[in-house]
Design a protein that fits this description.
The complex is a heterodimer. Chain A is an alpha+beta fold. Chain A has two domains: 102 residues, no CATH class; 333 residues, no CATH class. Helices cover 61% and strands 10% of the residues of chain A. Chain A is built from ten helices and eleven strands. In chain A, the strands form four sheets. In chain A, strands 3-4-5-6 form a four-stranded antiparallel sheet. In chain A, strands 7-8-9 form a three-stranded antiparallel sheet, with helices on one face. In chain A, strands 1-2 form a two-stranded antiparallel sheet. The longest helix of chain A is centred in the middle third of the chain and has 63 residues. The two termini of chain A are 29 Å apart. In chain B, strand 3 and strand 4 form a beta hairpin. A two-stranded antiparallel sheet of chain B has the order 1-2. In chain B, strands 3-4 form a two-stranded antiparallel sheet. Chain B is mainly alpha-helical. The longest helix of chain B is centred in the first third of the chain and has 56 residues. The chains are: A alpha+beta, B mainly alpha. Chains A and B meet through helix 2, helix 3, helix 7, helix 9 and helix 10 of A and helix 1, helix 2 and strand 3 of B.
């Protein structure tokens, strides 16, 4: 054993404590950094070489300590669960947001919705029936008819507008996803290079996990980490990111709601359709491909039933001048429905030419009753159809909101799991800091002690008073 | 393994809890300030469906009440017209009875004839009574007359004028001209005027025919009265249905005020205690005890 080797041992202690305090410091300063995973300095004792050398005596047994590495504490499975939960949450929330937007425009239940408009339309016909020659009553009928068509137009436009918003949002999600995929591929490359060069890659790995998580939030997919530290992301079997290469997704399909039924918007990889079942993109695709087109189609049915029902009665009547009654509503869907008569004289109010009889107006007014609608159409009438449509949307939004709440708590639990595993506990870091401070002080004391021994040996040995 | 708890997880869960509490407070506040339990269909889809049905039925009821007002006014006019009509016809009959007195000179008979002629034009005027520019006794005829005043011919038709007074009932709002002898009266009166003008006794056929016409008018009066009674009953029904709907709409859509206020109170307590607890836990760390 030599005094100098003891000095070396103490120096390794100083260095290790220094390094451990550095790591604790890194943890403390990054306690609030999003995506940061705590790190731990791994200490390892240094033994003496197993083979004897010139400098080693048989008595030597102490070799020192070294920091063998700085471990990033992160469970890949916990992180994967968090990313998947986030993807499903994003899908639900994008779908809920879009449908809630439509629901607001329905203005039901209330006195300003389509239901109220239709009710006042029927009432106006009864008023006209009470007073068939009254021009004012006739004008009211026409104006109330126009009010109904206006409501239908604005609902139809509202749904189409929401569709347009959802489509731009999807395009935006896609460009973010493509960018994130590129960034992820770059980080993969850096990690690979860093590992080969033996450089620390903990911070790069945090970046990698953050990017993979945001990809899951955008387009879903599953991430797996290879032994080389590179993450690969596949969406429904299509490798979006693999090592240092990233694929680009494109958006194909209809650009207006009218064509969405036959040509629904979809994500493409080259010429392959990529089915997406998670992430905001999935929510937008559901809204674009089925929810909004089906709402729009059902609104069109309300409009055409109203048209057919009123026209069927109106056409059996005659105008005041004896002309047979034409159609009252014209158009093929909610967007194009218009009122044909422009003046009260064009309303077919009487059932027999040359008489003043409000019977036809009475019959149209009677259509306010759902049974009368059913008899006239041979199926459910516009009132029931509109109510079903509203209720269906309400149920849909409500169940999405409930599923969203459940998913929120799933995400919260997954977040807590990640935080439990990788989060920085300041008390713990303070303790570590103190622990290594003491360790540093003690190592320094070893140096002082050895120094004093050497001093004794060198300066005082052999001296006699 | 013990669960690691970190400052980050504490503050995340604190924030989440506070958010949830505040969200509930906001919901309750929105309900209280609008007074409505349902503002969008997703708040309660099935109550939304009921709300829409109730409102639709209520709108129909309001219209039935308007129809009832219209038909009541129209029948009121008809009723008073028929009463005047029967008065005038009775006056004609009195003239005929006077003419039966023997010893009336030709002059007196001529005077009776001219009185009867005046009554005749008054009676035709009554037959041509209109309500809102529509003749009351002429069915659905295009013009505004039941009897052409120059020819005395009945120009009306027997088509009914019908109004809906409830979901299940309609009522006839007019009286057929033929039911009140509008078709036979002008010719009969002409005959009576001629018979009065002559010095011969008034033929008994005149009395029989006039009495027959009179009884038709009386019958029509009775019929109108019965219809008014029916309308009153319908009005009471529709009105109570409408009120019932109003209270059901309110039950369905309005907030239960005491319950909501109680909820708000307990939510506030929960929120405040969450704030208090968070403040206590988040304040301390090991740093407070290290020198």
């Amino acid at each position: 054993m030599s005094g100098f080797s003891s000095l070396n041992t103490a120096v390794t202690g100083l260095a290790a404590a220094q390094r451990a305090m550095d790591v604790a410091g890194q943890n403390i300063v990054n306690a609030n950094t999003p995506g940061y995973s705590r790190q731990r300095a791994e200490l390892q004792e240094i033994g003496l070489p197993a083979t004897a050398t010139l400098f080693t005596g048989t008595g030597a047994s102490v070799g020192g300590v070294t920091v063998s590495g700085v471990t990033r504490i992160k469970d890949a499975f916990v992180e994967a669960a968090r990313a998947a939960a986030g993807g499903r949450q994003a899908a639900l929330s994008s779908q809920t947001d879009e449908l809630t937007g439509v629901q607001q425009q329905f203005a039901e239940p209330g006195d300003t919705g389509l239901q109220a408009s239709m009710d006042s339309f029927y009432s106006a016909w009864h008023d006209l029936a009470n007073n068939p020659t009254d021009v004012a009553a006739g004008s009211v009928v026409i104006q109330r008819g126009i009010a109904v068509t206006d409501q239908l137009h604005s609902l139809s436009n509202g749904i189409a507008g929401q569709w347009g918003i959802a489509r731009s949002a999807l395009a935006d999600v896609l460009s973010q996803a493509n960018q994130a995929a590129k960034d992820l591929a770059d980080v993969n490359a850096k990690i690979s290079a860093g590992l080969v060069a033996g450089r620390p890659v903990n911070e790069l790995e945090d970046q990698r996990d953050t990017l993979a998580r945001s990809l899951a939030t955008l387009v879903g997919g599953s991430a797996s980490i290879g032994s080389d530290g590179q993450v690969s992301v596949t969406v429904s079997g299509v490798a979006l990111v693999s090592g240092s290469t990233a694929q680009q997704f494109t958006l194909a399909g209809a650009t207006t709601i009218g064509a969405a039924g036959t040509d629904p918007p979809r994500l493409m990889w080259g010429t392959t359709v990529v089915p997406v079942d998670s992430g905001s993109a999935a929510g937008y695709l559901a809204v674009l491909g089925s929810d909004l087109p089906s709402l729009s189609a059902r609104l069109d049915t309300v409009a055409t039933s109203l048209r057919d029902m009123v026209n069927a009665v109106h056409q059996t009547g005659f105008q005041a001048d004896g002309t047979p009654g034409g159609v009252f509503f014209d158009g093929t869907d909610a967007q194009s429905l218009t009122v044909v008569p422009t003046s009260p004289g064009q309303l077919a109010v009487t059932p027999a030419a040359g008489t003043v009889d409000g019977s036809i107006a009475l019959q149209i007014g009677d259509l306010s009753d759902e049974m009368a609608q059913q008899t006239q159409l041979g199926g459910t009438g516009p009132t029931a159809q509109w109510r079903d449509l509203t209720t269906m949307l309400g149920v849909k939004v409500q169940s999405l909101q409930n599923a969203g709440k459940v998913q929120d708590s799933v995400v919260a639990a997954a977040d807590a799991a990640v935080e439990t595993d990788s989060g920085v506990n300041l008390d713990e870091e303070m303790t570590t800091l103190l622990q290594f401070q003491r360790s540093y002080q003690a190592s320094a004391r070893v140096v002082t002690t050895v120094d004093s021994i050497l001093d004794t040996l060198i300066n005082h040995t052999g001296l006699t008073a | 393994m013990t669960l690691r708890v970190t400052q980050g997880s504490i503050s995340a869960s604190t924030l989440r809890g506070l958010q949830t509490n505040l969200g509930r407070l906001q919901d309750l506040q929105a309900q209280l300030s609008s007074g409505k339990r349902i503002s969008v269909p997703s708040d309660d889809p099935s109550a939304t469906a009921s709300a829409m049905t109730f409102r639709s039925q209520q709108a129909a009821d309001v219209q039935y009440l308007r129809n009832i007002d219209q038909v009541t006014a129209r029948l009121g006019v008809t009723d008073s017209t028929l009463t005047s009509l029967s008065d005038r016809v009775r006056s004609v009959r009195e003239l005929m009875v006077q003419a039966q007195n023997g010893g009336m000179g030709a002059d007196s008979r001529a005077a009776l004839a001219s009185q009867a002629a005046a009554l005749k034009s008054e009676i035709i005027g009554l037959y041509n009574t209109t309500y809102l520019d529509r003749p009351v006794f002429a069915g659905t005829v295009a013009g505004q007359l039941a009897i052409d005043p120059t020819t005395g011919a009945y120009v009306g038709n027997d088509q009914p004028v019908v109004t809906r007074i409830s979901r299940d009932a309609t009522i006839r709002a007019d009286v057929k001209g033929t039911d009140v002898a509008a078709d036979t009266m002008p010719a009969l009166l002409d005959r009576i005027v001629t018979d009065l003008g002559s010095t011969n006794p008034v033929p008994s056929a005149d009395f029989t025919d006039l009495d027959a016409a009179m009884s038709k008018i009386q019958q029509a009066l009775g019929d109108v009265g019965a219809r008014e009674a029916r309308i009153d009953a319908a009005k009471a029904n529709v009105d109570s249905h409408r009120l019932d709907l109003t209270s059901r709409i309110s039950e369905n859509e309005d907030v239960d005020l005491p319950a909501t206020i109680m909820n708000l109170q307990s939510q506030q307590v929960a929120y405040q205690s969450a704030l208090g607890a968070s403040a206590k836990i988040l304040q301390t760390s090991l740093l407070d005890f290290l020198r």
